[in-house]
Write a structure and sequence with these properties.
Blueprint: H1 3-18, E1 25-30, H2 44-48, E2 51-52, E3 56-59, E4 70-76, E5 80-88, E6 110-116, E7 124-129, E8 135-140, E9 150-151, E10 159-164, E11 168-176, E12 188-197, E13 202-205, E14 222-226, E15 237-250, E16 255-270, E17 274-280, H3 314-318, E18 336-338, E19 344-346, E20 349-358, E21 363-372, E22 383-394, E23 398-409, E24 422-433, E25 439-449, E26 458-467, E27 471-480, E28 496-507, E29 514-528, E30 534-548, E31 553-565, E32 584-596, E33 603-614, E34 617-630, E35 634-646, E36 653-666, E37 671-680, E38 685-697, E39 700-711, E40 717-728, E41 731-732
Parallel strand pairs: 1-4, 1-14
Antiparallel strand pairs: 2-4, 3-13, 4-5, 5-11, 6-7, 6-12, 7-8, 8-9, 10-11, 12-13, 12-14, 15-16, 15-40, 15-41, 16-17, 17-20, 18-19, 20-21, 21-22, 22-23, 23-24, 24-25, 25-26, 26-27, 27-28, 28-29, 29-30, 30-31, 31-32, 32-33, 33-34, 34-35, 35-36, 36-37, 37-38, 38-39, 39-40
Length: 733
């Protein structure tokens, strides 16, 4: 960087600091001149548009302007919002990990914009593009206060093109107003833009964000002002039909099956704030598989929702409760059921409706009703699954909400017990957040009802958090009654009281290779209602993390645990293993170290190694992820999780292995191929999923998917094999 460049940067930083307390404003010009989306930004309308280019560093520091300039211009017409961005760099060798849509942001050079269209500081839309014009979009919920607030599974129709030049790239975005929701007559939105500049290991934002906050925290936005008020958004009708041909063989039952299915979804815009989604004979087929996880705990684990029908406004339904302790509504429960032997199997959905969105700036409404099909052979009843939710924004960025959930059998069944005929849950949640996210709290009270069981059945929580640049402190208390039940929820443990707290202190060295380092201590205890509130678990975890300026991380760990086993338990899940005794307490301590290299490099790795006592024995664990990239088309990922559990005789000793390589190749921005192999000796399973996807039109796909599954106990034997061809098409009516 030249001396002139450095002097200009210092002067502009001083000037910007004088105005740092005032959120920035960007102005959008109205145009009736057509814009050709080519990534060049050479039309007169772009030349005349007002530019904003004062981006602040978010990493490695958060107190100076970005070293490499990013400029942004916004214009609009009656139908579309256009965003033009120019990102300067060292040269034209930008980092692009893939040509596939919805790329992982931290591993790719990219620019993104975020719109809080209702100015509620709680929900927002994100649109981003790489130097190759590859798109990604996401929904932001809960004020962007946690990493779980960012949901990249959302899909919507919009467009982006780009060009790469000697030392910069430009991106043009065209976002139809019909693809997002906003109040009619809007004169302004709250707005943010950010950039991952991997050439220089720099993250920057248009409106300054403190490093203690998540990058998309809605408390740190500026303003987007329109030249004239926005007109009422068009209310399109989208119809998304599908056809799916499947051929499969079940080797265990020696059965061959060929089937042809069809159905579809419809999306109907209701006003400027609401969506009505309708699904008929939906096909949630296995075109994308879940990750296998090695589970050495006594409790169920949850996996994220990937089905588009449930994604839009998902936080309105799934944001109640505590995701670690008790969620009253977990959409992945719909479409699966337990058969007469207690095995979890897929259960066909007949159809459903889902109404969700904004009534105005302060009120949100959600209603969902889905009917599943009966399966008499497996003794599964036809149930109606319904949820009604209403949320109200209070203060600047807080909210309260109430809900009612009901799962009810559609008719009488001989195999259905009285207590399983229906399950109802009602509740109230409060999420209070200060304007700058320094203070936040969550309080909820939920109650369940089922036949002959209306007393007690409560789940409740109080959590308070204090978060600044140097300190993060929280305290959490949760109660889940032993009889609290939500058939459509996720509740890993019943009959517990949990109390926990954490203190974290972060330091920011002024010189050297270390960007920050922090010390975190967690203290959590669980008490059993069944045992007269006897303490059954106590975890004291300590972490010391160092974050380097090259974006790599090193962490040292200490985990001290106490577990009182109520029942005998075999942590190895061995077929003939003798469980370690129950009605007994166990103290054990593990030590660990983890290292994460810079994920933007062509080869990167994440490692974690732990060793120590484990119940009445020892455990050695080594897990990690390795990535090799030949940009922008090829990506090889290898995940592994190895656990050696050594218990004293006569209890089992086992090596638990999970290996999962994945190969991805992007032929173009429209044609992708991936193959995932997953092997788990804990589940005696080897699975292969190979998928070819052709996005022949916006949000319209042709999938060719091959699945192969093997038992690996003793000898490798085929279990299930299938191939299916699925076509979906997005129609605008």
């Amino acid at each position: 960087m030249s001396k002139k460049h450095i002097i200009c940067l210092l002067v502009s930083s001083i000037i910007a600091c004088l105005n740092a307390q005032e959120p920035p404003t960007i102005y959008a010009n109205y145009t009736d001149t057509p814009i050709v989306l080519d990534g060049k930004m050479d039309e007169d309308v772009w030349i005349k548009a007002k530019e904003s280019n004062s981006f602040w560093q978010y990493f490695p520091t958060d107190s100076i302007l970005a070293k490499y300039s990013t400029s942004i211009k916004i214009v609009y017409d009656d139908d579309n919002l256009y965003v033009g961005m120019k990102a300067e760099g060292v040269d034209s060798n930008f980092v692009v990990s893939s040509l596939k849509r919805d790329f992982f942001g931290p591993s790719t050079d990219n620019v993104s914009v975020v719109f809080d269209t209702f100015k509620d500081r709680i929900n927002a839309y994100t649109f981003g593009a790489s130097p190759y014009g590859v798109q990604r979009e996401a929904l932001v919920s809960e004020g962007g206060s946690t990493r779980n607030s960012f949901n990249p599974t959302w899909d919507v129709k919009w467009y982006a093109e780009s060009t790469i030049n000697d030392n910069h790239y430009t991106v043009e975005m065209s976002i139809p107003f019909s693809s997002i929701k906003f109040p009619e007559g809007s004169k302004s939105w709250r707005f943010q833009a950010y950039r991952f500049n991997l050439q220089s290991n720099e993250l920057s934002t248009w409106a300054r964000v403190d490093q203690s906050q998540i990058l998309v925290n809605l408390g740190f936005f500026g303003t987007l002002e329109f030249e004239k008020p926005l007109k009422k958004s068009k209310t399109p009708l989208y119809v998304i039909p599908y056809i799916n041909g499947l051929a499969s063989k079940d080797f265990e039952l020696n059965q061959t099956n060929k089937s042809f299915a069809y159905g579809g979804d419809a999306k109907i815009a209701i006003g400027n704030g609401m969506n009505l989604d309708v699904t008929v004979n939906p096909d949630f087929s296995n075109v994308e598989v879940d990750d296998i996880i090695a589970n050495l705990t006594r409790f169920e684990i949850s996996l994220p929702e990937k089905r588009q029908f449930f994604i839009d406004n998902n936080d309105l339904f799934g944001g109640y409760g505590s995701f670690r302790d008790a969620i009253p509504f977990f959409s992945r429960r719909i479409g699966i059921a337990k058969d007469s032997a207690g095995n979890t199997i897929q259960n066909k959905i007949i159809g459903g409706v889902r109404l969700s969105g904004k009534l105005d700036q302060d009120w949100r409404l959600g209603f969902l009703s889905i009917q599943n099909q009966e399966d008499l052979q497996n003794q599964i009843a036809s149930n109606n699954n319904t949820m009604l939710t209403l949320q109200r924004r209070i203060f600047s960025r807080s909210q309260i909400g109430v809900f009612a959930i009901n799962r009810q059998a559609f008719k009488e069944y001989d195999f259905l017990s009285e207590e399983d005929k229906f399950n109802t849950v009602v509740g109230f949640d409060s999420n209070l957040v200060s304007p700058d996210n320094t203070w936040s709290s969550n309080i909820y009270m939920h109650k369940s009802y089922q036949p002959g069981d209306n007393k007690g059945n409560l789940s409740s929580r109080i959590r308070v958090q204090y978060n600044t640049r140097e300190w993060r402190i929280f305290s959490d208390a949760v109660f889940v009654d032993r009889d609290f039940r939500s058939d459509l929820g996720f509740i890993p443990r019943n009959g517990i009281v949990k109390q926990g707290s954490s203190v974290e202190r972060t330091y920011y060295p002024k010189t050297g290779k270390i960007n920050s380092h922090n010390l975190r201590v967690f203290n959590f205890m669980w008490f059993s209602q069944e045992l007269n509130y006897k303490k059954t678990d106590h975890n004291i975890w300590s972490f010391y993390e160092i974050e380097f300026k090259n974006q790599s991380k090193l962490e040292l760990q200490s985990r001290k645990q106490y577990v009182f086993l109520i029942d005998a338990f075999d942590p190895t899940n061995s077929e003939d293993g003798i469980p370690i005794p129950g009605d007994k307490g166990y103290n054990f301590t593990e030590w660990g170290v983890s290292y994460e290299s810079n994920v933007s490099k062509p080869i990167s790795i994440i490692n974690e190694f732990t060793y120590g006592s484990f119940f009445n024995g020892k455990r050695l664990s080594y897990s990690g992820t390795g990535l090799m990239r030949i940009q922008p088309r090829f990506l090889l990922t290898l995940q592994w999780d190895f656990n050696r559990v050594v218990l004293p005789n006569p209890y089992p000793t086992a090596n638990i292995v999970l290996v999962s390589p994945k190969v991805e190749y992007t032929f173009s921005k429209k044609l992708f191929w991936s193959t995932l192999i997953q092997f788990s000796n804990q589940m005696d399973n080897l699975g292969i999923n190979s998928r070819l996807q052709w996005r022949f039109a916006p949000l319209s796909d042709l999938f060719l998917v091959y699945n192969d599954n093997y038992y690996t106990h003793g000898t490798i034997q085929p279990n299930f094999r299938s191939i299916n061809l699925k076509l979906t098409y997005w129609l605008n009516l």
